[in-house]
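F.,

This is the one I mentioned.
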């Protein structure tokens, strides 16, 4: 009896935590369908007079489509390039011992220790000299800097768990080292690669701080900078801001739920293998 009561209380507590976490999302979704007059008068989650005018305005009267394209471009490039580099680097760290092996690995971890705000000014000065300020290249380089450290170590831990005997058998049969990596190691590392892909994509999709510093003209704005344009000096268009936020979140939710099974498997495997 006491065990049942304890389980019931635990589930009730977890349910309250979930509601606390989901409440802001529900409020944003409800506000997206509220007319401007209801935003300040209706404090409930559900609008009294639902409208689609906010979506029509955001999609038709703003540069949301251009912001969306810039963000997709940056997130996709960051994901693909991070995967390509992390796979080779992680495999090298897992299978080879070379001069500077420890220094290289520890340097990757050191990058993760520095907060982004600490690197903002040095990166801005470097990009200014390279004429990369107010370009998407500056964001791509910055996002890859932060994504690669996690990606390399994540894949290294996954590669460590793959038996070397499988690769040795393939090498004896005449396969090249790159052939072994492409035909044997990568198919066995699907969950780990999926985890790295999700991490890199979400990092580039949600990042605001560096976009705010490096981007000047609205032609290069990402979605996060586009959302910021709805916040003015003296007032905020909450209905448009929440509408754009919902539209920004939907692709990420779809992508996350589609990859959730692989993400969970990859995180567990990467944490236990080694």
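My design for it:
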């Amino acid at each position: 009896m006491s065990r049942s009561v304890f389980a019931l209380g635990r589930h009730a507590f977890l349910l309250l935590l979930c509601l606390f976490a989901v409440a802001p999302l529900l409020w944003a979704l409800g506000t997206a369908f509220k007319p401007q007059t209801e935003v300040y008068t209706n404090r409930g989650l559900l609008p009294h007079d639902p409208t689609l005018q906010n979506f029509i305005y955001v999609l038709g009267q703003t540069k949301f489509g251009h912001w969306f394209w810039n963000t997709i471009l940056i997130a996709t490039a960051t994901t693909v390039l991070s995967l390509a580099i992390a796979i080779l680097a992680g495999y090298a760290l897992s299978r080879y011992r070379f001069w500077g092996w420890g220094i290289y690995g520890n340097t990757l971890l050191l990058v993760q220790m520095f907060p982004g705000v600490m690197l903002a000014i040095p990166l801005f000065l470097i990009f200014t000299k390279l004429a990369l300020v107010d370009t998407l290249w500056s964001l791509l380089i910055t996002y890859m800097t932060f994504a690669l450290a996690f990606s390399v170590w994540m894949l290294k831990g996954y590669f460590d768990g793959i038996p070397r005997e499988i690769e040795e058998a393939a090498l004896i049969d005449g396969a090249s080292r790159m052939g072994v990596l492409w035909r044997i190691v990568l198919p066995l590392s699907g969950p780990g690669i999926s985890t790295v892909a999700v991490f890199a994509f979400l990092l580039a999709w949600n990042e605001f701080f560096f976009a705010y510093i490096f981007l000047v003209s609205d032609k290069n704005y990402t979605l996060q900078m586009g959302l910021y344009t709805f916040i003015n000096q003296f007032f905020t268009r909450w209905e448009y801001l929440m509408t754009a936020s919902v539209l920004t979140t939907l692709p990420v939710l779809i992508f996350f739920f589609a990859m959730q099974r692989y993400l969970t498997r990859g995180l567990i495997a990467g944490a236990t293998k080694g």
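DSSP finds 13 helices and no strands in the chain.

Talk soon.
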